Amino acid sequence: QVQLVESGGGQVQPGGSLRLSCVASGVSLRYYAIAWFRQAPGKEREGISWIHDSDGRTIYKDSVKGRFTISRDNAKATVYLQMNNLEPEDSGVYYCNVGGFIWGQGTQVTVSS
């Protein structure tokens, strides 16, 4: 059974940091591109960061560039999203996605003073 489990979300003040993790089971991450999406209340889910499978090349949405870092550890079947200098606009449910078709259940991030 293929499963993705995100963790690491929580509430943090503006300017704070969080590190999200996404652990995969039933699938080998090394063969897939991986992405992090987020969905704010009342808004559509949007892709914010991607990491390629072949060369590890990363892509970021402009609004998170320079603040977020995506990484992967294929041996641990885990994908990470390091989020620094968080802003209230970063609040939402964060989801990892593998290969464009496997989704986790999401983890809530709230940035508020």
Poorly predicted segments: none
What is the typical, i.e. mean, pLDDT?
95
Fraction in helix: under 10%
Instruction: Profile the largest sheet.
Output: 7 strands, mixed
List the topology elements.
Layout: E1 3-7, E2 10-12, E3 18-25, E4 34-39, E5 46-51, E6 58-60, E7 68-73, E8 78-83, E9 92-98, E10 102-103, E11 107-111
Parallel strand pairs: 2-11
Antiparallel strand pairs: 1-3, 3-8, 4-5, 4-9, 5-6, 7-8, 9-10, 9-11
Summarize the structure in words:
The protein has strands at residues 3-7, 10-12, 18-25, 34-39, 46-51, 58-60, 68-73, 78-83, 92-98, 102-103, 107-111. With 113 residues, it is mainly beta. Strands 2, 4, 5, 6, 9, 10 and 11 form a seven-stranded mixed sheet that branches. Strands 1-3-8-7 form a four-stranded antiparallel sheet, with no helix packed on it. It starts with a strand and ends with a strand. The mean pLDDT is 95.
Keywords, separated by commas or semicolons:
single chain, seven-stranded mixed sheet, globular, mainly beta, 0% helix, four-stranded antiparallel sheet, 113 residues
Brief account:
With 113 residues, the protein is mainly β. It has strands at 3-7, 10-12, 18-25, 34-39, 46-51, 58-60, 68-73, 78-83, 92-98, 102-103, 107-111.
